[in-house]
Design goal:
Shape: globular
EC number: 2.6.1.59
Protein name: dTDP-4-amino-4,6-dideoxygalactose transaminase
Strand content: 15-25%
Organism: Rhodococcus zopfii
CATH superfamily of the largest domain: Type I PLP-dependent aspartate aminotransferase-like (Major domain)
Number of strands: 16
Bound molecules: pyridoxal-5'-phosphate
CATH architecture of the largest domain: 3-Layer(aba) Sandwich
Helix content: 40-55%
CATH class of the largest domain: Alpha Beta
GO molecular function: dTDP-4-amino-4,6-dideoxygalactose transaminase activity
Oligomer: single chain
Largest sheet: 8 strands, mixed
Radius of gyration: 21 Å
Number of helices: 15
Strand order of the largest sheet: 1-11-10-7-6-2-3-15
Number of domains: 2
CATH topology of the largest domain: Aspartate Aminotransferase, domain 2
Structural class: alpha/beta
Family: Belongs to the DegT/DnrJ/EryC1 family.
Length: about 375
C-alpha cells in the first residue's frame, strides 16, 4: 500500500485565477470595490439569494462589522457556542460585550437551542450560531428564541456557503450572516470573507463601516458629491487581487462542491459497519438540511482512542486533526466570557472528534486508502 502523505486540506485552484489576477495588475485598479468585487459579489448573491452582500477581508472582519452594526457595548451579552472558532467570540468581545457560552447538540456539534434558552438574560442582545461542517443548526428553535426575546441572530456561516435549512440558504436566515474565504474553506481567495443581510438600512450602514466610516460608496455611485467621516468603521474591504481569485473560484463553485460531496459520500457509504462495531459516531445530516461537505467528522468513545486513531492514521501518512479548544475554558474565554451552565457536551465533543481529509482533488485511490486505514483500526 502506498504511504505518500495525504494532506488534510489542499486549497482549490480555479482555472481563471491567473488570467483574472493579470487583468487586475494590468489595470490601474487593485484597491477594493472594482469590477471583480462587483462580479464576485453578484455570484455570491446568486448562490445565497441574499438581497445584500459585501465582500470583506475575512469572516472575522465580517463578524466585527456585525458587532458594530448591532452597536454592542459593555453590559451587552452575546451568546456563542462553546464549541466554536475564536473569531465567533472575539469579534463580539472586541466591542466590549460579554460572551456567554452555551452548549452544543452532540449529534451535529451545533448550538443547542435548549442550552441557549437556559442562559438568556435581559442583557442578551445577540446569538451567534455556526453551521458546523456546513450542516445547519436547529434554526427553528433558535428563531423562536430570537423572536420571543427580541434577540438578533447572527450566522457565522464560514462552513456553509451553498448549504440550506428547510430550503433556505444558510447565511440569510438570521439578521446578519458571514462567510469565510480563507484557504481552508470550500471557496477561497487566500484570506477573504463576506457579510450578508436583507435589511437595506443595515446595508447602508455596513457600507460606511466597511469604508473606514465614510460614505465613499455613495460618492462612487454619485449620490453625494464628496465623502466624509460618518460613523465608526474600519478598513474591511478586500483588494481587487483577492476578489479576482474569489471570482474565478465562484465560477467553479458547482465543480468544487461536487468534488467535495464525492469524498464525503464515499466516507458516509464506507464507514457505518466499522463505526457500529467500534462504538464510533459518524457525522449525520438531518433530513431537512442540505450540507456543504465542508468537513467529515467522526467521534470515538474516548479521547485516548481518538488520539490513538490520529497516531495510527499519521503512521499511514494520513493527516486527521481535531479542533476547537472549547472557548469557555480558553484563557480569553475565562476572562471575557461567562459560562452560567457548564458546557459538558462541547468539552466531550472536543475530546473525541476527529476530521478526515476532505478536498476536491483527493483521488478515489486516496479515499480508498483513507477508508481502508480507518476501518482496520480497532477502536
Ligand atoms: C474559518 C472560520 C472563521 C474565520 O474565518 P476567517 O475568514 O479566517 O476570518 C470564523 N468562524 C468559523 C466557524 C470558521 O471556521
Amino acid at each position: 500500500m502506498s504511504t505518500d502523505r495525504i494532506l488534510f486540506n489542499r486549497p482549490y485552484r480555479a482555472r481563471g485565477e491567473l488570467a483574472n489576477l493579470e487583468a487586475v495588475l494590468a489595470s490601474d485598479h487593485s484597491h477594493g470595490d472594482g469590477p471583480f468585487t462587483a462580479s464576485a459579489t453578484a455570484k455570491l448573491r446568486a448562490i445565497t439569494e441574499a438581497p445584500h452582500a459585501l465582500l470583506t477581508t475575512s469572516c472575522t472582519s465580517a463578524l466585527e462589522m456585525a458587532g458594530l452594526l448591532l452597536e454592542l457595548g459593555p453590559g451587552d451579552e452575546v451568546i456563542v457556542p462553546s464549541f466554536a472558532f475564536t473569531s465567533t467570540a472575539t469579534s463580539m468581545a472586541l466591542r466590549g460585550a460579554t460572551c456567554v457560552f452555551a452548549d452544543i447538540d452532540p449529534a451535529t456539534g451545533n448550538l443547542d437551542p435548549a442550552s441557549v434558552a437556559a442562559v438568556i438574560t435581559p442583557r442578551t442582545r445577540a446569538v451567534v450560531v455556526i453551521h458546523y461542517g456546513g450542516v445547519a443548526a436547529d434554526m427553528s428553535g433558535l428563531l423562536e428564541l430570537a423572536d420571543g426575546h427580541g434577540i438578533v441572530l447572527v450566522e457565522d456561516n464560514a462552513h456553509g456557503l451553498g448549504g440550506r435549512w428547510r430550503g433556505r440558504p444558510l447565511g440569510t436566515i438570521g439578521t446578519l450572516g458571514t462567510l469565510s474565504f480563507h484557504d481552508t474553506k470550500n471557496v477561497h481567495c487566500g484570506e477573504g470573507g463576506a457579510l450578508l443581510m436583507s435589511d437595506r438600512i443595515l446595508m447602508d450602514r455596513a457600507e460606511i463601516i466597511r469604508e473606514k466610516g465614510t460614505d465613499r460608496a455613495r460618492f462612487l455611485r454619485g449620490t453625494v458629491d464628496k465623502y466624509s467621516w460618518q460613523d465608526l468603521g474600519s478598513s474591511y474591504l478586500p483588494s481587487e487581487l483577492n476578489a479576482a481569485v474569489l471570482d474565478a473560484q465562484l465560477d467553479e463553485f458547482d465543480l468544487i462542491q461536487s468534488g467535495r460531496h464525492r469524498v464525503w459520500d464515499a466516507y458516509a457509504a464506507a464507514l457505518p459497519d466499522w463505526a457500529a462495531r467500534n462504538d464510533v459516531r459518524l457525522m449525520t445530516v438531518p433530513p431537512d438540511r442540505e450540507h456543504t461537505a465542508h468537513l467529515y467528522f467522526l467521534r470515538t468513545p474516548t479521547e485516548e482512542r481518538r488520539d490513538a486513531l490520529i497516531r495510527y492514521l499519521a503512521g499511514l501518512g494520513i493527516a486527521a486533526p481535531f479542533h476547537y479548544v472549547p472557548l469557555d475554558s480558553s484563557p480569553a474565554g475565562l476572562k471575557l466570557g461567562r459560562t452560567p451552565v457548564p458546557c459538558v457536551r462541547s468539552h466531550e465533543f472536543s475530546r473525541t472528534v476527529l476530521r478526515l481529509p476532505l478536498w476536491p482533488g483527493l483521488t478515489d485511490e486516496q479515499v480508498s486508502r483513507i477508508v481502508d486505514a480507518v476501518t482496520t483500526f480497532r477502536v
